[in-house]
Amino acid sequence: MPALVRHDTDLWSSEYPLDWQAGLVPIPVRMTVIRLASGELVVHSPGPLSPALREELDALGRVGFLVVPAAHGRFAAEAAQRYPSARLLAAPRAPWRRSSLVFHDSLADQPPAEWAGQLESHLLLGFRLGEVLLFHRPSRTLVITDLCFNVQRSASRAARLFFRANGMWRRFGPSRLIRLLAVSDRAALQRSLEHVLDWDFERILPGHGDVVEHGGPTALRAAWLP
C-alpha cells in the first residue's frame, strides 16, 4: 500500500496517527507534498519518515522546502536531517520553535520566489497559532493546519468522546478550544478569511481529518463566517 495518496497531478498527502492527551487520544495528522514545476518538493507538516515514505518521496523529486506549522513540528528535526539541503520555513513569530532547528526563512504573505505562480501563502491575522495557509494554484487546493478539522472516523472510543465534546467529530470546522482560545481579533481574522476566499480553490487538505474534495469555499465560509 503506498505511503502517499495522490490527490492531483503534483499533489499528495500522507496521514498518520499522533497520540495526544497523554496518549489517550490518537488524532489523525496530515503531511502534504506539493511538486513544483522545477521538480522540487514542498513538504508541509513533515511526518514520521518510514522507509516506504522516504522511497516514495525520493522517487517524486528532491525535497526543496520543509514547511513547519505551529504545533506540527514533532518530526521536523528528522526531516531536516534526512533532507539537509531543504529550506526550513515557519510562520513569523510562530509560538512553536525548536532551538535545535535553524529556520532559513519566515513564511507569511511573500512565499519563496521559486513558488511564483504555483503556490501562494497567507498568514492568518487575528489567530494566535500563527497559521500560514497555502494555496496550490494548479490543483485549486487550499492547505490548512488547525484552522478547521474534519475527523470522520476513529477506532478509539476515548478519541471519539473527546472529538464530540470538542465539537470536532464528523464535521468540518474549528474545534471549540480553537474557537475559544486561538482567536485574538475576530475582525482581523474575518478580513484574513475573506482574502483566502478570494483564491480560486475547490479542494481543502486539512491538517486533521478527511480531505474536502469539493465545495471548499462554501465549507470554509460556513465554518467561520456563518
Write out key terms for the chains shown.
single chain, 226 residues, seven-stranded mixed beta sheet, four-stranded mixed beta sheet, 25% strand
* DSSP strand content: 15-25%
**Order of strands across the widest beta sheet?**
1-2-3-4-5-6-7
CATH fold-type name? Metallo-beta-lactamase, Chain A
CATH architecture: 4-Layer Sandwich
- Helical proportion? 10-25%
Structural class: alpha/beta
Report the major sheet: 7 strands, mixed
Give the terminus-to-terminus CA distance.
Answer: 40 Å
CA-based shape: globular
CATH class category label? Alpha Beta
Please provide the ordered H/E string of secondary-structure elements: EEEEHEHEEEEEHHHEH
